[in-house]
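Lab notebook, bench 4. The sequencing result for the construct came back, and we need a structural model before the next group meeting so we can plan mutations. Quick request posted to the team channel:

Model the 3D structure of this chain.
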Amino acid sequence: MKPLGWWLRHVHELLETSMARALDAESLTRRQWQVLNTIALGARTQAEIDVVMAPFGSTSAQVADLRERGWVADTGELTGEGREAHARVEARVKAFRTAVTDGVSDDDYRTTIRTLERCAANLEAA
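Done. Here's the predicted structure in token form:
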């Protein structure tokens, strides 16, 4: 049996490359999608977006790109075109997430998440 670290890295790499393929149709990176989704969920200012996206650092470059595409208005809200793009990408992301967990029961998924949370807590406490 391969160790936990091997599986974590392998799954991470597969998630990253598969998500990149899912976003490729809109020429978006994962970070751009996360920023677009954060705005769709109500963040309006750069500061609000950066609070939500804090683990990833400043998102000003991603916000600027979304504005250049015409997806984000000067008010910080999504434009009509931005809402349409968000809906398209959100559908792809949902399909991706469904495919990732295909054949995994809700109980197994919850157990996996709780196990990973426990491992993280153990490492943080060490």
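The chain has a mean pLDDT of 96.
Will bring this to the meeting.
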